[in-house]
Design brief:
Elements (H helix, E strand, L loop, with lengths): L1 E5 L4 H10 L1 E4 L2 E4 L3 H14 L5 E6 L6 E6 L4 E6 L2 E6 L3
Protein backbone atom coordinates (compact mmCIF):
# COMPACT_ATOMS: atom_id res chain seq x y z
CA UNK A 1 0.00 0.00 0.00
CA UNK A 2 1.31 3.44 -0.96
CA UNK A 3 -0.03 6.82 0.16
CA UNK A 4 1.17 10.06 -1.47
CA UNK A 5 0.25 13.49 -0.14
CA UNK A 6 1.12 16.68 -2.03
CA UNK A 7 0.48 20.29 -1.02
CA UNK A 8 -0.22 21.29 -4.60
CA UNK A 9 0.20 19.35 -7.81
CA UNK A 10 0.11 20.39 -11.47
CA UNK A 11 -2.75 18.91 -13.47
CA UNK A 12 -0.39 16.87 -15.65
CA UNK A 13 1.16 15.22 -12.59
CA UNK A 14 -2.24 14.51 -11.05
CA UNK A 15 -3.32 12.89 -14.31
CA UNK A 16 -0.23 10.70 -14.41
CA UNK A 17 -0.69 9.62 -10.80
CA UNK A 18 -4.35 8.81 -11.51
CA UNK A 19 -3.18 6.01 -13.79
CA UNK A 20 -1.64 4.19 -10.82
CA UNK A 21 -3.49 5.52 -7.78
CA UNK A 22 -6.93 6.53 -6.59
CA UNK A 23 -7.20 10.21 -5.62
CA UNK A 24 -9.27 10.15 -2.43
CA UNK A 25 -8.91 13.87 -1.74
CA UNK A 26 -7.23 16.62 -3.78
CA UNK A 27 -3.50 15.92 -3.49
CA UNK A 28 -3.88 12.59 -1.64
CA UNK A 29 -3.33 9.41 -3.67
CA UNK A 30 -3.66 5.81 -2.47
CA UNK A 31 -2.75 2.66 -4.33
CA UNK A 32 -0.87 -0.60 -4.45
CA UNK A 33 2.07 -0.75 -6.87
CA UNK A 34 5.29 -2.74 -6.93
CA UNK A 35 8.57 -1.29 -5.64
CA UNK A 36 9.95 -0.54 -9.11
CA UNK A 37 6.93 1.55 -10.13
CA UNK A 38 6.86 3.23 -6.71
CA UNK A 39 10.51 4.30 -7.02
CA UNK A 40 10.08 5.55 -10.59
CA UNK A 41 7.01 7.57 -9.61
CA UNK A 42 8.88 9.02 -6.63
CA UNK A 43 11.71 10.22 -8.89
CA UNK A 44 9.13 11.83 -11.20
CA UNK A 45 7.40 13.50 -8.23
CA UNK A 46 10.65 14.97 -6.92
CA UNK A 47 11.69 16.27 -10.36
CA UNK A 48 8.29 17.76 -11.20
CA UNK A 49 7.11 19.03 -7.83
CA UNK A 50 10.19 20.70 -6.29
CA UNK A 51 8.51 23.64 -4.57
CA UNK A 52 5.55 22.05 -2.80
CA UNK A 53 5.81 19.42 -0.11
CA UNK A 54 5.39 15.79 -1.11
CA UNK A 55 5.25 12.89 1.32
CA UNK A 56 5.14 9.20 0.44
CA UNK A 57 4.35 6.48 2.97
CA UNK A 58 4.53 2.85 1.92
CA UNK A 59 4.48 -0.63 3.42
CA UNK A 60 7.82 -2.12 4.34
CA UNK A 61 8.87 -5.26 6.14
CA UNK A 62 10.43 -3.62 9.20
CA UNK A 63 9.52 -3.15 12.86
CA UNK A 64 7.32 -0.15 12.12
CA UNK A 65 5.61 -1.70 9.10
CA UNK A 66 6.00 1.36 6.86
CA UNK A 67 8.56 3.89 5.61
CA UNK A 68 8.47 7.62 4.79
CA UNK A 69 9.98 9.65 1.95
CA UNK A 70 9.94 13.45 1.84
CA UNK A 71 10.61 15.85 -1.02
CA UNK A 72 10.27 19.62 -1.13
CA UNK A 73 9.54 19.93 2.60
CA UNK A 74 12.20 22.30 3.95
CA UNK A 75 10.76 22.38 7.48
CA UNK A 76 10.41 18.59 7.74
CA UNK A 77 13.07 15.93 7.93
CA UNK A 78 13.16 12.20 8.59
CA UNK A 79 15.07 11.04 11.64
CA UNK A 80 15.87 7.42 12.42
CA UNK A 81 15.83 6.29 16.04
CA UNK A 82 16.78 2.61 16.40
CA UNK A 83 15.17 1.68 13.07
CA UNK A 84 12.01 3.68 13.79
CA UNK A 85 11.44 6.57 11.40
CA UNK A 86 9.97 9.81 12.66
CA UNK A 87 9.19 13.04 10.84
CA UNK A 88 10.73 16.01 12.59
CA UNK A 89 8.97 19.34 12.03
CA UNK A 90 11.14 22.37 12.73
CA UNK A 91 9.66 25.13 14.83
CA UNK A 92 8.97 28.46 13.22
Amino acid sequence: MVVISMDSAPESLRGELSRWFLEIKPGVFVGNVNARIRDLLWERLCLTNKTSGTIMVYSKNNEQGYEFKLCGCPKRSIIDLDDIQLVKIEAF
